[in-house]
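Incident log entry.

Two folding requests arrived from the same account within the same minute. Monitoring flagged them as a possible duplicate submission, but the sequences differ. Recording both here for audit purposes.

Request one:
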Amino acid sequence: MWEYTCLFRRKYRHNFVIVFLLGLCVSLFSHCASLPSESWKSNLHEKSKLAIYLRISSADQEKMSFMLTSVQLVCVDGTQVIFPVEEKLKVYSDQRQILIEESILAGNYQKIGFLFSEAALLASGSTLPIRVPEKYTYLEHPFLVTAGDTNIYLELDVGYKKRGDLETDLLFWSRLSRGKRSSGLKSLMLYVTNTGDNTVTVIDRLTNSIISVIQVGIEPKGIIVDPDGQYVYIANYGSNSVSMIDTMTNEPEDSIALPLGFGPTALAIDPEGRYLYTANTDSDTVSVIDTDLKRSINTFRVGHKPIDLKVSPMGKFLYVANKGSNNLYIFKVKESKVDREVSIPVRSQPWGIAVISNNWQQDQLLVANFGSSTLSSFTIDSANLNPDTIQKTLSIIQSEYGPTQIVSDKSGRRIYVTNQKDNSASSFINTFPQKGAKAFISAQEKLYRVGSKPIGIAHDEERNYLYIVNSGDESLSVIDLRQEIVIDTIKVGKQPYGVALIKK
């Protein structure tokens, strides 16, 4: 297994905050140590342009400036790449600029460093010099530069402190951590995978109009948006890969190969957005992708024909529905490590699953059983996970409905299910389990008639809309849950499958 552990410092309270947005836009290959895939060697010695974008902001009104002398990238074998900058930066400015545009060889980079000089504070009409340390400020941030584009965003906290009793004896300090970028297309985008023409349809939820069609891998199925709304990930069933779409541009950014995973069907991501999991239906496995490194770092066995999977809201467990073996696997996860804990039998052909966190101690796991037209509910005690502590309830939907995918609203009080055999979607009232009691799912509350063979489903919490992908007639049904009616039907690509939306 090839993996790294990165430590990031999230937020600090300081006098000055500088946000460095580093876009590392690359299309190349590397001389740096131990490239992880033999198939990339044909691209050896290729170069691409590295662009570092800088935006400065500060919560404090004091004026401070300093010189950024150079930026250093360090490969895993210790090789250093240094880019001279010699750019004077002002904390109180609010501008975006390109610091460097250079060509760089691809490879596995371990950390990034900044070197500063000539810092000064402008106070009371005079300029006070600030002493600057001679060493680099580093961030241990492993990232992989490949033939595809790589984007990295960093935050730099800076300030000054007194040395001794003198008011004018000041020392410059800096602290580098990973940051987030703002996304230009975020708030109302919706994405639909189309297995029949290898595309993703992008829809503006405000106007219900198609704004883009993006070519991805072969037979795209599962789709998910990362927690920050920066990237959309697509499981390409036919090409054994995962495509990445940048939500800033709605352009494909990279493709991640799954060398040991065949027929990826569904995706799940941890709450931090670091690890992506793929359910590989044809190889009975799950693959773990490091989204920073953009590569598969682990693959492990599950049941027969895994069809869906979810990470618990607290990021502690991974739940996998195995359609072929009629059971669920529960794994305990910690970073990239995965340990199987429990196997639970369910009704015929489990398909979609949803997880609701009732509190810090319990998860409610909901399962749509396609073959038996039932919903299963399991109460998972995260502090004492074993088969004896798992409580189960079963709800009958309706004979021959064939439920496929399932979602809940943010509160967990409403559950929505697509019924493939009945060309409908159902809503249910969910009651959280109380101490010593089981969870309870009401009888069907509402039935919505949609298109042919509905499968994918997504809930817009803010607008209270439900989106249903109809694979049989290549459409997307839009349901207004306040009015309880279907308000629009949008034609999409061939044989649509999955749907995901960006949440504000």
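Request two (distinct sequence, not a duplicate):
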Amino acid sequence: MNTQPHLSKRGDVYQWRRKTRRFSTGNIDIKLSLGTTDRQHALILARKVSAESDMVMEQIVGSRITPEHGRAFLSEVIRKERAKIVQLGMFSRVDSLDPDDDARHDAAMAEAWQRISSHGINHNVSEEASDLVRDNINLIRSDLSSHPRKQALQRLFQEQTGQDQLSALEYMQVMDLFVSGKAKAWAEDDPKEALTAKVSPNPPSSDPALPSSTLRAIVERMNAIKRTEGIEEKTLRQYFSFAALFTMLTGQDDITQIRQPDVKAFRADLAQMPKSWGKSPKDQASTRDEVMAKAASLPPDKVGLSVGTINRHLDHLNQIADWARDEGLPIDPNLKPTKLRRKETVRARDKRDAFTVDQLREVFKNPVWTGSRSEHHQTQSGKEVFKNGIYWCPLIGAYTGARREEIAGLSPFDIVESDGVVCLSIEDS
């Protein structure tokens, strides 16, 4: 059977999602990117994660582990299963009795360990790597993911720390130390320091097996998917602008290091910034001190971003955090930007004055509706009316009040009849 109840696609990439209810305390929703566009690989991963998730969901519902810990565990399951799929195509290396050939294989093994140490176990091997180096990388990955290797690393952990239990985090740290020591050994350095270093109780700043946690890198990955979903470039640029603004005001550009107080300080700064910030190219190179100094020189009515703009920035951060969490990055469970959204004090319909009848008459005197020079020069006076999108969108907007994006996305098939009344069918895309 080739279907999985928790399997879906986000753009071209498959994802796994499962919901359950924790009695009266709300829903638990775990979403994870499977990191593949291959349906057969996605089916294998989804079956594995679904099986593992039965136990995890039971633990979460019983409040024995947090949703964040459950998500992290399932992300690790996905990572290991993806490595296994890659290893199915691995070539076995056969040693030669030729010393020159042995030296060539040793050099390839040294390079393989160095690449894994520098770029992570599951990094994308660059094109300049030789086939022999690629084969050795696959062999190393196979060894590091094996059960005997895990037992050996657990014994090493016990010897170095005196602790009997090995947590998932500590296991990753021990794995990192082991890889570092191997790389040093093959590079003919002394690996003793790397292998005998005491495991720190604090989490490492980054896991080489995980994607970059900088705001800009996350936005780039997120926008790549959103672009395939037809999101406008204008909207995608807003995420980059937000990332630059947040880093400028808070000094933070790593999503795993952002805490709720950082977001609260960010919101406070937005309320004290010049309303015109961002309209000049020079603003992009400004520092926080320069921005606040400029705000201090302005009258009160020129200072403070609107409530809607502040809330949009908080929504952007929330989306980025959710995306990073789905990628397996260790996001602070208390990071909840949308809890800091400010309440709108003005009704949406009162935010901007409506056109008067006389103003609308003046708008529709434009050559677009009275006669144009050509379709390419539609706003220049002429004798012909071209009934294209430029002609219809403002008319439909004036008549229905629908948004520009909703109108521009309509097709002839969206003109429907309901109970004898002709309607436009506008649905969420």
